[in-house]
């Protein structure tokens, strides 16, 4: 199978590429001039890299024309929620226009059999009341950040392109996912990096945190990439699926689990700059629709995810 991954150099993209190569797929991936290559270094000889600015419709048209993919995993995005408050326009353009360019290219090239997965997000649910959990696909979308709004737009564009043009687009609303290679800005990876730095004496034994009361549903990235491949194998075109473990953690409790993995004594201190203008307080996934449709079940325990993330940072700081 000829597969295109947008954002192959990223956290999820690199794990997905490894998974697809092991399945015997021919893997193509897009990158930008400033993309970091360290995550995909070991698989570089086995993949086809194409430089492409997804915001540029001409480049995307050429990309799709050249590769004529049978499967597309559209992962490239501005994915850090706080960045979307600092530069909302950039988030909108990166997330919405890039996807639009991709859909238009597939449509205009007449690749009707190409199946496309789009990485939507639980951030779309935004303001969720406790009695509305666990969250189903039918829950209202009340995004609380420009990032959340951009993901709603991506999600609905996927629906519209299936309805209007018959493209085979599967929308996956993934809850928080973690694991080795996770960017250092994201909560558990950030905490793990700080622990590793403290262990090596590179930082005083004080771990800075933001809102510890938020509740998140964490899934290991390796389970998530397997879910994406199942979404394209068994998912219904135009349909939307929640993907998440169904197990929630208060961020403060997840931090306590992480701190159990180190011998050093660490003080936890709130850094006001890590607080958000509005935070999504609870994201608890009901993935039963996806599980029923595809047979997917998460397999990697949370303790292993934390352990592997900490080891990842211990090797790098
Ligand atoms: N990043 C960060 N978050 C912190 C910190 N302290 C507490 N938090 C809280 O930890 C939660 C998770 O933050 P992130 O890891 O930044 O992820 P997110 O905002 O939930 O968004 C992630 O998940 C979405 C799916 O729900 C993804 O769509 C998105 O791209 C991202 O991966 C938020 O409630 C945040 O306020 C900190 O020091 N840093």
Structural commentary:
With 317 residues, the chain is α/β, with parallel strands linked by helices. The chain has two domains: 2-177 and 218-243, NAD(P)-binding Rossmann-like Domain (Rossmann fold, 3-Layer(aba) Sandwich), CATH 3.40.50; 180-216 and 247-283 and 299-314, UDP-galactose 4-epimerase, domain 1, CATH 3.90.25.10. The protein has helices at residues 11-22, 57-67, 81-86, 88-108, 146-165, 187-199, 221-234, 251-259, 288-294, 302-314, and strands at 2-6, 26-31, 48-51, 71-74, 115-121, 168-174, 177-178, 206-209, 215-217, 219-220, 240-243, 248-250, 267-270. The strands form four sheets. Strands 3-2-1-4-5-6-11 form a seven-stranded parallel β-sheet, sandwiched between helices. Strands 7-10 form a two-stranded parallel ribbon. A two-stranded parallel ribbon has the order 8-13. Helix 5 links the parallel strand 5 and strand 6 (168-174). The two termini are 38 Å apart. Guanosine-5'-diphosphate-alpha-D-mannose binds at residues 79, 81, 121-123, 175-176, 185-187, 190, 209-212, 214, 216, 251, 274, 276, 279, 283.
